Amino acid sequence: MTDAAPARPALPDDATVDRRDIRALLRVMARLRDPESGCPWDVAQDFSTIAPYTIEEAYEVADAIDRGSMADLVDELGDLLLQVVFHARMAEEAGAFAFPDVVEAIVTKMIRRHPHVFAEDGGADQDAVRR
User: Containing domain of residue 72, as a range?
Assistant: First the structure.
């Protein structure tokens, strides 16, 4: 008997994509939501039906932090990221926006909220930021 790890299932479309690459998760969600070959439960969901799961996952992230469990935190952050990808996928299917738009929106917001870091003049010190 060997202690070999069980084989991991192949990713849809391109098994060569690194599982640490966000594109792998986007492809998994696209496959789950495929009306022809996806998961019936995932296909049936909408924004309102998965909203409670999104909230639950955020609480589970906070719980892992409170317990100081990095192993649980990495898992729960993945679950929360899945919720973001799930919402973005449904929005893409509706023609509203896609995951890259979510990324662009948060990058733009973070730059706008941190002019002390991203300003061309080199930014401000910590006391100026507090004001």
Answer: 22-95
